[in-house]
Design a protein that fits this description.
The protein is an alpha+beta fold. The chain contains 36 helices and 25 strands. The strands form 7 sheets. It has a 7-stranded antiparallel sheet, with helices on both faces. Strands 1, 2, 3, 4, 5 and 6 form a 6-stranded antiparallel sheet that branches. It has a 3-stranded antiparallel sheet with strand order 7-9-10. Helix 2 packs antiparallel against helix 3 and helix 26 packs across helix 27. The chain is elongated and about 105 Å long.
Length: 937
């Protein structure tokens, strides 16, 4: 193609673009002064004349522009009706190429004259498309075939058109920033040239046919039989000629024929959607160009879809398939945590934390399709939603109208996701053009679930990566890993175990999956929700403030927290709060049950807690404060320190121990991709029915406990709850971070040496509060220059920056010198934890709690250890006498049999006494309500 032709095509494209743009701008001003009825008429005529201008140029230029017009003609769900009507003509055949050109290409490519290749060749093409035209023929052996012949010179034209399209998209993004399609055109520029090699298309056709026809194993087996489509057999191929089996069918836009043959159009589109769901989620290999011209409908009942043209076919990795499936299911469930995690996994980076708006936008792709008749209302609804999101963005980022117009909330958009979304849009357009309504969530869900469940259900026996690949720290750890394999995935979904002995890490093992619908492996830095294990962290913060002289155990709470001194709470002391003897065990419980999101309002919960009335006299009885413990201690912490709860958490625990990014009470934005998701072992939970509470457990807590336990994961998996400050129940930790904490507590606050350097990623390498990418303009880097401050974040991660230089220095100092958490306390701090010695008068006689911690040991004996367990099985404790600390985190909530078995095994291997809490027959404490039943060993 000569320079004259190149310049001519470029001028025609940009001249028309400017003409259409200024036409719309002029009409936009004009309609401000006319009535609504006349306004609609003006817009209708404007759309129609510009659609014809676009059509005429596309037909004249052919090449890529025809393909783009075919794509636009399917978007009846978002484009004005005149564009759909006019551009639909591009789905029909274009003017045919000269027969001499066609014959010459065939003979040159196949190396034989036409008379030797075909017994019969129809000179009239079946169709002429943007890249090639198709003729019907009969081979010498009598087989009916179609021959696809590439146009002469089309390769140069397509490549030039891509350049022009890229320039046009960049100009549109500059003129109207809210319409930035650069990621889409970039991906198209990368994929479209592959269509020009018919050998590539032939192999793609064989692969898709094979994938859709064979039965698959594991979780995918149940959905394979749901795909019932036809794909032509490949007979022969070269770079520019493709010979395929002939299949007699009806084109999708031939509505009269579809009606005459009695084709169920709704069933037809559902079948096509199933075929694409299989390609996307099961195979990871799909046709990226499903416009109506690439389908036929067989004339024979049951009128199966015939899939054609696999030139633009995309392969995606297993991890991307899982991320896309997770995104789909998160939209189906309204799960914001899973959606943000899916974004991070696929490499989609946002510049702003707006989970609800992200959910709204993502759900658009999977929403129920609309018919062409409803297109106008659909466009109106989408525009209204766009305006709402823009307004929310403007308020969030404090931008004016001009600034918000130029602000792009997306920092990076992965190419694989772009093609995926293009396919979804084309499928939506297909249903709109056939005027049928499709519920995509119902049709595609089994395939998405299959992708995620397939690798999870295999378990340790077939999955070599079930135990995360990390160095073995000791012989005990090696034996423990064998035990976990023995227990298997029937009882374990995901688990972490970390243990210290004599100040050193002897176990740091992770195994299983992050969630029921998240097959990614649990890693040492994964964050598990641990429920009441959180109380042990909160209690440690109170002890730290006592050590710093900010409060005293025997001090009246009202003296520290003035608002608390009402409604008969004047005599409640700090040690009453820690020992669960304040009489406020049911405080705010009813509110939390009727309005769970009340838990998310930290300031309001503290205000309401200060107004509560105790049910028993302070110190008279020890009854487990299952939720109120956190708010009581939280209010105490903030009032005693004059700082926010999170500030004290970082200052007292996170920074000294160098466990940044792995211990939270209320997660920050940016860590969602490391979260484990909760599920319930219903077989065990059902055994809770009829459970009778002991005297130290509120009867209200065990009322309908099985039903409550079943509903807890749904609530605590939500983003609002995960981000809330609930100091009694909302810790998100890694086992290695909490084990380091208990190892320090067991040594009277002495910080252990740095965690094992062989653990990857290193403990403390995550920055505690991630920051979102900024929208600063990118600068070109000089050749060979390195980015200051280290390498860029890996794909799918948030940029992570330390809160301050002071934080960094504090962490470095703690890690290098050891140091201590408590500077003014002697060994008596251990007595305070367990409520013995001089502190024995501050606890309830024979109670299961010391000052904030569950006391561990043998019944009737002085406690030898302390810690805290949580509903569902997670647990952390230490035995100071034996310099031993262990933490187990799990995400399949059960009666705790796995945790007890693990702890008992490790203790026995090390010769450490097994506390009753973890023995087969010992009494279980009230801090793990679901562990009150007879243990299942």
């Amino acid at each position: 193609m000569g320079w004259g032709t190149i310049i001519s095509r470029r001028l025609k494209v940009f001249s028309l673009a400017l003409f259409v743009y200024f036409d719309y701008k002029a009409v936009q001003k004009r309609v401000q002064w006319v009535s609504a009825v006349k306004k609609n008429s003006i817009w209708e005529k404007t759309h129609e004349r510009n659609a014809r201008r676009v059509l005429n140029l596309m037909i004249e230029l052919e090449g890529l522009w025809v393909k783009m017009g075919q794509y636009l003609s399917t978007r009846a769900d978002v484009l004005p009706e005149p564009y759909i009507t006019v551009l639909k003509q591009l789905q029909d055949s274009l003017p045919p190429r000269p027969l001499e050109e066609v014959r010459g290409t065939i003979e040159k490519e196949l190396g034989k004259p036409m008379s030797e290749l075909f017994a019969n060749f129809d000179n009239n093409p079946l169709a002429t498309a943007s890249i090639a035209q198709v003729h019907r023929a009969t081979l010498e052996d009598g087989r009916e075939v179609v021959v696809k012949i590439q146009h002469d010179g089309i390769k140069e034209i397509i490549l030039e058109d891509l350049k022009n399209a890229k320039s046009l998209i960049e100009w549109i993004a500059w003129a109207e920033p809210q319409y930035d399609f650069n990621p889409m055109i970039d991906e198209w520029c990368k994929e479209a040239p592959k269509e020009l090699d018919f050998n590539h298309e032939a192999e793609n056709t064989r692969t898709v046919s094979r994938n859709l026809s064979q039965k698959t194993e594991d979780g995918a087996a149940s959905v394979s039989s749901d795909v019932d489509v036809l794909i032509p057999e490949v007979i022969q191929s070269t770079e520019r000629v493709l010979v395929l089996q002939y299949m007699d069918g009806i084109r999708l836009h031939d509505n009269d024929s579809l009606e005459a043959y009695g084709v169920d159009k709704k069933k037809l589109v559902e079948e096509i959607t199933r075929a694409y769901a299989h390609q996307l989620y099961i195979d990871g290999f799909f046709n990226g160009d499903p416009h109506p011209g690439n389908f036929l409908v067989s004339k024979e009942p049951p009128h199966k879809p015939i899939l054609l043209d696999f030139g633009l076919t995309k392969r995606i990795s297993q991890s991307m398939r899982q991320a896309l499936a997770k995104m789909f299911l998160s939209c189906a469930e309204g799960d914001q945590v899973a959606l943000l995690s899916a974004f991070a996994e696929m490499g989609l980076k946002l510049r702003v934390d707006m989970p609800q708006q992200s959910m709204d936008i993502a759900t658009i792709f999977f929403r129920q399709s609309t018919t062409a008749d409803e297109a106008k209302e659909n466009i109106k609804a989408l525009n209204e939603q766009r305006e709402r999101n823009t307004k929310a963005l403007q308020e969030k980022m404090k931008l004016n109208k001009k600034e918000v117009k130029h602000f792009n909330p997306v920092d990076a958009f992965p190419g694989d996701a772009i093609i995926f979304m293009r396919v979804l849009n084309l499928l939506r357009g297909l249903s709109a053009s056939l005027n049928v309504r499709i519920v995509y969530l119902d049709i595609m869900r089994p395939f998405a679930e299959s992708t995620l469940l397939g690798s999870i259900t295999r378990g340790p026996s077939t999955n070599s990566q079930w135990i995360y690949d990390s160095p073995v720290n000791s012989e005990v750890e090696s034996k423990l890993r064998s035990l976990l394999l023995e227990i298997g995935s029937e009882k374990i979904l995901g688990i972490q175990v970390c243990a210290y002995k004599d100040g050193k890490v002897i176990i740091d093992t992770a195994a299983g999956s992050l969630g029921k619908y998240d097959p990614r492996p649990v890693q040492p830095d994964s964050l598990f929700p641990v429920f009441s294990v959180t109380k042990g962290i909160t209690a440690g913060m109170v002890h730290w403030l006592v050590d710093k002289g900010k409060l005293k155990y025997d001090e009246t709470v009202a003296d520290i927290w003035p608002e608390f001194g009402t409604n008969k709470k004047e005599l409640i002391k700090v040690h009453h709060l820690l020992n669960h003897t304040a009489g406020l065990h049911n405080a705010l419980a009813d509110v939390a049950k009727t309005d769970p999101l009340f838990l998310c309002d930290w300031e309001e919960t503290l205000r309401q807690m200060a107004k509560c009335t105790p049910e028993t006299e302070p110190g008279s009885s020890q009854i487990y404060h299952y939720l109120s413990f956190g708010w009581l201690c939280g209010g105490l912490i903030e009032n005693a320190s004059g700082k926010k709860f999170q500030e004290i958490l970082e200052e007292a625990i996170v920074r000294p121990l160098q466990i940044d990014g792995e211990l939270y009470i209320g997660i920050p934005p940016g860590v969602e991709s490391r979260l484990a998701a909760l599920t319930v072992d219903m077989e065990e939970i059902q055994k809770l029915s009829g459970l009778r509470p002991g005297p130290d457990v509120p009867p209200e807590l065990l009322s309908g406990i099985a039903q409550m336990a079943a509903g807890v994961p749904a609530l605590f998996n939500t983003l609002n709850i995960r981000r809330a400050i609930v100091p009694a129940a909302n810790g998100h930790i890694s086992a290695r971070a909490l084990a380091r904490y208990y190892a320090a507590l067991g040594a009277s606050g002495t910080i252990p040496p740095p965690h094992s350097s062989s653990s990857k990623p290193p403990l403390g390498s995550h920055v505690h509060i991630p920051t979102l990418p900024t929208a600063a303009p990118k600068k070109k880097k000089k050749k060979g220059s390195a980015k200051k401050g280290g390498s860029a974040p890996d794909k799918g991660e948030y940029a992570q920056l330390r809160t301050s230089d002071a934080d960094s220095e504090a962490s470095a100092a703690a890690g290098s010198t050891g140091g201590t958490m408590f500077t003014n306390s002697s060994g008596s701090i251990l007595d305070a934890f367990m409520g013995v010695g001089e502190y024995s008068g501050m606890i309830h006689p024979n109670g299961k709690f010391g000052l904030g911690f569950r006391r561990y040991g043998k019944a009737g004996s002085v406690p030898t250890g302390f810690g805290h367990s949580g509903m569902g099985g997670s647990n952390g404790f230490c035995d100071p006498e034996h310099a031993f600390a262990i933490v187990v985190t799990v995400n399949r909530m059960s009666l705790g049999s796995v945790t007890r078995r693990v702890v008992r095994f490790v203790c026995e291997e090390l010769g450490v006494p097994v506390p009753d809490e973890f023995s087969v027959d010992g009494e279980k404490g009230p801090d793990m309500v679901l562990n009150l039943a007879t243990p299942l060993e």
